[in-house]
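Input sequence (133 aa), recorded before submission:
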Amino acid sequence: MKTRDSQASDVIIIGGGATGAGIARDCALRGLRVILVERHDIATGATGRNHGLLHSGARYAVTDAESARECISENQILKRIARHCVEPTDGLFITLPEDDLAFQATFIRACEAAGIRAEAIDPQQALIIEPSV
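Predicted structure, token format:
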């Protein structure tokens, strides 16, 4: 493939967010000549507006088990290949007084079925982990 300034490339990647940049890096590591095209600044789209969490997939466990399994699988891959980029913080799903308490058990079972670690803790433990709860 030729560009306007006659530089040859093996692949052109459109989009400079996390996915595009990751693919560009992977291609470059494999010896390919890469051009990354981004309409604006790098990571100013959805990537730049994320809140920096590496999701476990738990939020999908009950309603979309396949997505939950894919999430935890990708989570584990990223922790393995880019450990220096991941700070383990765990997370909390809160059951409020008006919530159906039976859903808590359903949620935990669905997480476990998807390979996602989940456990019920009491409110005092939650406050130790996250005082602003």
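Checked by second reader. The longest helix spans residues 65-81.
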